[in-house]
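call fold(seq) -> tokens
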Amino acid sequence: MSNEEKTSTTGIGEGMGKAGTVVKEGVVSSLKGINEIEAEIVSLVRNTVSNALRATGAVAGEGINVTKDVVKGAISATEEVGTGLILSTKSVAKGVVMGVSDVGGDVVTVASQTVKGAVKGAAEVGADVALVARRSVDGVIEATKEIGGNVEEVAAVAVSGAIEAAGAIGNTALKAVKDILVGVVEGVKDVASAALPKAKTSISEEKTFAKETGEIPEVTTRTKGKRGE
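ret:
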């Protein structure tokens, strides 16, 4: 390879390196911007919810009404701007739960209502119902972790709420929401059985299990016991 060729190759390498750096810096800057926006939304919603509940003095009764109002406000905002519902849903859901927690409200009930409202709102404006469901569930779970709440319980009601709301929309929405939330329930202890129960083990599967392991399935043992065998 001649000196000119070496110089040319090096130049291209340096050029690609610089271009990669520019893209990297741009992406990092954009992501930082997104994180800042999300933090602002969480703060805005949290303060709005807690202030509204303190003003009414009836945390238990008003929590759900305020939640519905806040979710509607967020959806209306995205309608005006024309985009951003999926991005903002997690922050809104997180802010609602934290705001209710600040005034000693029922976080579990509000978590369910928030997710239901987000899913219903997504359907009304033609947004991706499954993604909005996932983001809102992620938001309430993240908030519950930060406030030291019962993550398993909140995750269970949030997932159930999303499925219930999707079911009211239609079978396509229901399937999409169930599919996207499988990963959520698998990641939280004891939620899978409560929110997305698996099919019962068949008798043939139990027999196969017994042959392979040499163990007698518990169901079979109970049945024999009842029959007095």
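The mean pLDDT is 76.
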